[in-house]
Structure formats: structure tokens, C-alpha cells
Design brief:
This protein is α+β, with helices and mostly antiparallel strands and 415 residues long. It is 26% helix and 30% strand. The protein contains 11 helices and 20 strands. A hairpin with a 6-residue loop joins β1 (7-13) and β2. The longest helix has 23 residues, at 392-414. The two termini are 23 Å apart.
Length: 415
């Protein structure tokens, strides 16, 4: 196989057995294919691999889910990285739903292209990248929206980008853990609708037939903070993978550390695997030392492990990037990019923490080509000209390479 011209194909099967769609993803010439593997560091992944294998057991009577959380920054918030990973995982192990979505547009920021979380009313919002300390004001998604009016009115809609099935007949609405949270009901009642709550801060909606849109309304008879919403998990009745993507622009490990009881909030997603993809924003900060980075990783990982002790953790390293510099010449402002000397410190801290604590690492920096590779990614249309963020093509390639490393490890385990 000529790896310089390889095309990674995602085959996404629709509900109609006769229809299928293939998305072709061009590679980048500097990819280090031999490095595309998970470094386990002594961690035991047999529990999740056994559970993934059980997903292919058609005789399994109860609903069987593998829940994966992808926690990160703007690379995750954009949606394309996690989408490519999710679609590939679900193609192999089954599609249990879209997973967690957040009201990002209502909090005045960008939202992935495959869903809409809308309302005709204005909302107050908070995000974990603002302020020094958060208590219960933001939820598992790292954001919150609070209505400004008594009437609470939201619409959740999914949209297929590749012809994949994105219908749902289960919604888990995450909200403020208050018994005064308003009762929100669908404006058009689905067949066999059931609503219930298993945990404070969650409302479940289930019905018979899948849909791509649901409109919830209710009236808040108490103070506004009792009607705060954090997000929703969109699911179906099928066995398979649920991938919950949680991304916030400019986020760092410390952003999630500032959220009080974040481990408890994350545990509501019942994760079997938590993938943490951060480090880019730390790398563009000149004041983050190796010791500070190591400590911040430890704080977040410890919080997750305490509340989800059975969840495995996978740390990923950030890609090569450059710092933007500006100067004036002949009265005009000009921009150039210079190597990020802070980046190796951040990568070393992530890799060392994984090695020291038996936590798996996916070294995207090395896989992506290492030092200087971002120039190649920009030239070959895999990265934007800011030398930090990827294009849609670049994120799709990244997500599929992560999938390939998981698949390779799984196949070696079951062999």
C-alpha cells in the first residue's frame, strides 16, 4: 500500500440496507504511520475490549452500551475530530446514538454542524473558560444556559452530514439538580412517551419511534437558576458506542479543574473510557511550567478516577503548532509564525504522567509528523493558516487515525 496516497474510507451504513456512503479522506505526507498506536504504559484495557466484543453478541438480551467521553478544547468543540472517531467506532461496533450535545450557540459560540440546540428566547450563559472559579454554575458540558423568561422553550435537532442514521428516541436532559426544575414536555407527544429521573439533575425521555427533532416547553415558576440547562444525550434503542464529545474553545486542563465536582458530573455519562485531548492552549502560554502542567493533569485525572473508578483514561498529545507574531513594516501590520518552544514541555509532561501512572497515551504529536510538520499540514490543506487548528479534512484524518489505533489494539487483544 502506498501510504503517501492512501485514502481512508469511512463506510457509513444508513437505515436502508441498500444505501451506503463512503467519505474519502486524503492523508498528509508527513504522517508517521508506524507511530499510530496506543502506548498502554501498563494499563489494562481488557475490560473495555471485552465489553466491545460483547457488542457483537446478537444474543445479548439487555441494551449494551460502551460509553466513551472525549474531553477537550476547540479541536473537540468544532465537532469534526470527534465525529470522525464516533462514526468509525459506530460503524464497527454499533450506533447507540449521537451522544452528548451542548447548547453552544445559545451560549454565543460555535456548534458542530450535525445538530442544532435552539430557542426563540434569549438565555444567560456561562462557560468554563471564563472566570476563576465555578461551583455548580456549569455542568458536564462545561457550559450552562439559564432562561431569562418564565417560559422555557428549546428545540433539539440532529442533521445527517454523510447519510448516516442520526435519529433518536431517548433523550437525557442534563440540568440543575433542583427539585424545582420546570417540567419540560414535548409539544407533540411521541408514541409511548415516558419521562422519569434516575439522578438529580437528569430528566429522561423515551418513546417508540426515532425522530430527528424534539421541541420541549415548560414554565418556570421559581427563580431562573432552577431552570439552568447543561446539555442532552441523544440515544436510541440499539447496542453500540455512545461517544460524548465535550469541547470548549480555549480550554485547558485547569478549565475543567475549576468546575466544582466535575468528576461527579462526568460520571453521569457512565464512561468506560475517557479520552482527554488538551495541551494546545497550555503550549501557547509562556508561564506554564512542566511541574504546573503535570500537576494540572493529575488534578483532573484524580477527579475523574474517584467518581468513575472503572473508567479507563487515554491522554493524547497536542500536534505541532506555531506562534503568531506581528510587526509593522512600511506602515502595514504583517504576520509571521515562529516555532513554539513551549510545546515540547507540555508534551513531555503528558507523556511522563501517563508513564508514571499507568495511563495510556496516544502521541498525536509524533504521529502527525513531529517538529515542523504543521507547515506541511498547512501546505497540504490539513491545517488552517493559523498553524493551530485543522481543516475539516485534517480533523477527519486525525479522528480516523485514532480509531485505527483503537481498532488495532482491539484486534490484537481478541486474536
Amino acid at each position: 500500500m502506498n501510504r503517501s496516497i492512501i485514502l481512508l474510507l469511512i463506510t457509513i451504513l444508513c437505515n436502508t440496507a441498500a444505501s451506503s456512503h463512503a467519505v474519502e479522506i486524503d492523508t498528509i505526507s508527513c504522517i508517521n504511520w508506524d507511530a499510530d498506536t496506543i502506548i498502554f504504559n501498563g494499563s489494562d484495557w481488557s475490560p473495555i475490549f471485552d465489553r466491545m466484543r460483547s457488542l457483537q453478541d446478537t444474543t445479548h438480551a439487555e441494551r449494551n452500551i460502551v460509553s466513551i467521553v472525549h474531553l477537550g478544547d476547540s479541536h473537540v468543540q468544532a465537532g469534526y475530530f470527534s465525529e470522525a472517531l464516533r462514526l468509525s467506532l459506530q460503524q464497527y461496533w454499533g450506533n447507540a446514538g449521537r451522544g452528548l450535545i451542548a447548547p453552544l450557540r445559545l451560549s454565543k459560540t460555535n456548534e458542530p454542524a450535525d445538530y442544532k440546540f435552539t430557542s426563540p428566547h434569549s438565555w444567560l450563559y456561562k462557560r468554563c473558560i471564563r472566570g476563576k472559579k465555578f461551583s455548580n454554575t456549569v455542568g458536564v458540558s462545561g457550559i450552562s444556559i439559564t432562561p431569562t423568561a418564565r417560559k422555557v422553550d428549546i428545540t433539539i435537532e440532529t442533521m445527517s452530514r454523510y447519510g448516516e442514521e442520526i435519529g433518536f428516541n431517548r433523550v437525557r436532559l442534563f440540568h440543575t439538580p433542583s427539585d424545582k426544575f420546570p417540567q419540560l414536555m414535548p409539544t407533540e407527544t411521541p408514541t409511548n412517551l415516558n419521562t422519569y429521573s434516575l439522578h438529580p439533575g437528569e430528566t429522561y425521555y423515551t418513546w417508540s419511534d426515532t425522530t430527528h427533532i424534539i421541541h420541549l416547553q415548560g414554565v418556570n415558576n421559581h427563580s431562573n437558576e432552577h431552570a439552568t440547562i447543561y446539555g442532552a444525550s441523544l440515544e436510541n434503542d440499539s447496542n453500540g458506542i455512545l461517544l460524548h464529545a465535550i469541547g470548549n474553545n480555549s480550554a485547558t486542563y485547569q478549565s475543567y479543574n475549576r468546575i466544582e465536582n466535575y468528576g461527579s458530573k462526568l460520571s453521569l455519562l457512565e464512561p468506560h473510557l475517557v479520552i482527554i485531548s488538551m495541551g494546545t492552549n497550555e503550549s501557547v502560554s509562556s508561564h506554564i511550567t512542566y511541574q504546573t502542567m503535570y500537576r494540572q493533569i493529575h488534578t483532573l485525572v484524580t477527579e475523574i478516577r474517584e467518581k468513575s473508578p472503572d473508567a479507563l483514561i487515554l491522554l493524547t498529545t497536542p500536534a505541532d503548532n506555531k506562534l503568531r507574531k506581528r510587526y509593522r513594516k512600511n506602515g502595514k501590520r504583517r504576520t509571521y509564525y515562529t516555532h513554539n518552544n513551549q510545546l515540547p514541555t507540555i508534551i513531555e509532561a503528558i507523556k511522563d504522567y501517563g508513564s508514571d501512572n499507568n495511563i495510556a497515551v496516544w502521541d498525536w504529536y509524533t504521529i502527525g509528523g513531529g517538529k515542523g510538520s504543521c507547515d506541511i499540514w498547512v501546505k497540504e490543506d490539513g491545517m488552517k493558516k493559523d498553524h493551530i487548528h485543522y481543516t475539516t479534512k485534517g480533523y477527519a484524518l486525525q479522528g480516523n487515525l485514532l480509531y485505527q489505533s483503537i481498532l488495532k489494539a482491539y484486534e490484537e487483544y481478541i486474536r
